[in-house]
């Protein structure tokens, strides 16, 4: 990857991370809490994919009219299925289930674990060999984020919520890499659109099944959260993120270390949380780690596996 490609990858990656950062507080708004539940996590998961899928039909038709439509080949359908499992069902569903029980600040732990998972899968898939210094920066950065989240939550939450977060982290990383593998030929925008359209036979009926029976009983803020995760988290954010991962999966994955702190910034106006000096200190430490990791060498052994 040359300097220009690296710059583009980091730029697109930062756009995607920024859009994804609001996913946690917006999902929390959508599903509510155990004391005051709002939209079902199942409806939020399948509903947001259904909305984005319908928008994707229009986008693909537009690309067809322009003569730019890339149809998935037969050999690419397994990768589409892997991507769908990760980003359409796995990550959003288990994240939403977890955020019904824990605050978005604790849920941000999953975004701290995603860089390592994405980097490992990316290195295997693209036959890249990150240096020991790269892995050291990734481990240090993830440790900083995890330590901060544990401190901020006043202790580690035990029970099903952490299991949900672990599953969300694993499936999310798998979906990121699967989509990035398809992006060079199909294009970043068309990858997520094809995945969403192919999932409509599942997402539309499931969204209808889990739709709230009393729409008026759902707060306006919950619908706002649902609208955001449908448009930005499930659709537009992937336009930028898959483009970035296709340019440099291992390197770009480290940008996710900044995502938990961006989530905290977005949570301030939404949840009324206060940012203190310790929070800012941890944020600066993580950003410094990401910058150091960016300078570490990455070697490519050959073509993607």
TrEMBL record:
Keywords: Membrane, Transmembrane, Transmembrane helix. It is a multi-pass membrane protein. Residues 10-141, 161-291 form the EamA domain. It is found in: Membrane. One of its GO terms (cellular component) is membrane. Its main location: membrane. Signal peptide: none annotated. Belongs to the EamA transporter family. The keyword Transmembrane helix applies. It comes from Acidovorax temperans. InterPro entries: AA-Vitamin_Transporters (IPR050638), EamA_dom (IPR000620), EmrE-like (IPR037185). SUPFAM superfamilies: Multidrug resistance efflux transporter EmrE. It comes from the Bacteria. The chain crosses the membrane at residues 9-30, 42-62, 77-99, 105-126, 133-151, 157-179, 191-211, 223-242. This is Multidrug DMT transporter permease.
């Amino acid at each position: 990857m040359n300097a220009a490609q690296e710059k583009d990858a980091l730029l697109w990656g930062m756009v995607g991370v920024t859009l994804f950062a609001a996913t946690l507080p917006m999902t929390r708004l959508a599903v509510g809490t155990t004391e005051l539940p709002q939209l079902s996590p199942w409806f939020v998961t399948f509903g947001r994919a259904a909305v984005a899928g319908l928008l994707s039909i229009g986008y693909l038709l537009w690309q067809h009219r322009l003569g730019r439509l890339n149809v998935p080949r037969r050999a690419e359908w397994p990768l589409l299925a892997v991507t769908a499992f990760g980003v359409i069902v796995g990550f959003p569903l288990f994240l939403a289930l977890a955020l019904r029980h824990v605050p978005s600040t604790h849920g941000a732990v999953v975004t701290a674990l995603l860089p390592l998972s994405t980097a490992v899968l990316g290195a295997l898939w693209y036959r890249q060999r990150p240096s020991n210094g790269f892995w050291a920066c990734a481990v240090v950065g993830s440790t900083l984020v995890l330590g901060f989240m544990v401190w901020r939550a006043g202790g580690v939450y035990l029970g099903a919520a952490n299991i949900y977060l672990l599953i969300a982290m694993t499936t999310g990383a798998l979906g990121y890499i699967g989509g990035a593998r398809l992006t060079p030929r199909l294009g970043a925008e068309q990858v997520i659109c094809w995945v969403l359209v192919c999932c409509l036979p599942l997402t539309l009926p499931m969204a209808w099944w889990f739709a709230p029976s009393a729409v008026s009983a759902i707060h306006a803020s919950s619908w706002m959260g649902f609208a955001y995760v449908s448009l930005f988290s499930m659709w537009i954010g992937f336009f930028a993120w898959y483009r970035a991962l296709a340019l440099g999966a291992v390197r770009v994955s480290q940008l996710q270390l900044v995502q938990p702190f961006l989530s905290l910034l977005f949570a301030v106006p939404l949840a009324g949380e206060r940012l203190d000096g310790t929070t800012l200190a941890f944020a600066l430490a993580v950003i410094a780690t990401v910058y150091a990791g960016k300078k570490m060498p990455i070697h490519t052994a050959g073509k993607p596996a």
